[in-house]
Amino acid sequence: MAEDKQIGKIKVTVCQDKQEVARVAAEIFAKMIREKPDLMLGLATGGTPVDMYQMLIRMHKEQGLNFSRVRSFNLDEYVGLSGDHTQSYRYFMNANLFNHINIDKLNTHVPDGKAENFQMSCQQYEKDIQAAAGIDLQLLGIGSNGHIAFNEPGSPGNSRTRVVTLTERTIKDNARFFQDESEIPRQAVTMGIGTILEANKIVLLATGANKAEAVVKALKGKVTADLPASFLQNHPDCIFILDRDSAAGL
Ligand code: PGA
Known about the structure:
By secondary structure, this protein is an alpha/beta fold. The chain is 30% helix and 19% strand. The protein is built from seven helices and eleven strands. An eight-stranded mixed sheet has the order 1-2-11-10-7-3-4-6, sandwiched between helices. It has a three-stranded antiparallel sheet with strand order 5-9-8. Helix 2 links the parallel strand 3 and strand 4 (71-74). Helix 1 crosses helix 2 (50-63). Bound molecules: 2-phosphoglycolic acid.
């Protein structure tokens, strides 16, 4: 059974294992989609959310969870990769979620990794989020260095969607998704911390012992750009859903 605690403003749910993390998170998403069929989601990529996406696909197929009016904006994309590149985050979202549910792909948004003018495309991404009345429910992972989306250590709390340079640690963490480390893009487009903090509700998932140190600092450390996830301590409605390994330091 999952165990709930409160650390500052953040609600923390500690689950037995990563399957329970996926189940608890998927239930929150499903409940909110049922309550508001045109829910605006902020979505994330990486290894952590895959099990939750599987669970949502199952809920769609077996219980008729309806995504036909759901809209989404993803957190980030690699610079230089087009949406049909198998390591792009657009490709990831289609393969791991969108192709298996009844979402209208026209209502799904991932930053453009091949923009001609990134300054303009980043500003437009922010405008598009605002025009859609903002994000109701934002999903996040956390990097082993405490990043959220690709807001690496040093990212200011008021940062907006922009191009960033990835740290060596993030490149190493993500090397498992690529054939060769040299193929990993060195830059990405990411929503800013300020953008993320404007979501009405935020759900952060973490699994595995390599996240334990970042999780403790995010929840109990001081709020600092050195550990970007610590800015979540200021959010009024944020939940961390953790497995026992990532919660080991709490
Ligand atoms: P992961 O990435 O889910 O692949 O561990 C999380 C993140 O870097 O935010």
